[in-house]
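Sequence only, no structure available. Ideas?
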Amino acid sequence: MKAAKIDVVERTTELLAGFYLSTAAPELGPRLESAGHRDALLLVLEVLEMEAEAREQRKITRLRRAAQIPPGKTFETIEAGTLPAPLMRKLRELARGEFLERAENALAFGLPGVGKSHGACAIGNALVELGHSVLFRPAYQLVQELLAAKRDLMLKQKLRRLDSFELLILDDIGYVKQSPEEAEVLFTLIAERYERCSMLITSNLVFSEWERIFKDPMATAAAIDRLVHHATILEFNVPSYRTRRRRTDAGHSNEPVDARTD
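Reply:
I predicted one. Tokens follow.
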């Protein structure tokens, strides 16, 4: 029974400290306890727990809004059986968030329509629910934002704002327009986040094709080196959604399917 009383006092102190009530934190619980106001202490703790839960929910709501992840892209909405079990295990492991603490990256490769973006968004949504800060951006869009910031002499400030996100999801890097200016700001972003903040990048281009993005072989090699130094590689070697849909439709209609149309 004594241990239970100590737990109540400690929890009360912990919550008050979490609310930055530095004077009340070490005083309120012990004083109520020593004065014999056990019921009052329990009531205070109940209210503090309610406040803590409400604050956490408000935080998650803010993080969801800031993340700008497309709606509906969660693990629950990944069609059962479409991704191999080893790949799903990797996705789930990333969704626990330990890689963020180590400022590691993840790179998802595969043809269009195989679920790379959905998987990346599912990881992002799961991390937001754990209280992590995430930002989702199509690669071409973020590159244009960086170019605009550079023209306005605000690139350093833009990169600093991006640093506030533990994870930056850069979707479809292969669709960057591939001008020298775009390649330059994209490389700057990768270099700035290296070993400091995590990135999750999806691409329909394998590494051997990345010179199409960065143009210069040296810059391509340097970008890849920084990204893969601490990275999990996700290979989406599965049929695209459209291919699976045609196969399903063909199974119902018993009509042959020409796979070359994908």
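The two ends are 68 Å apart (CA to CA).
Hope that gets you unstuck.
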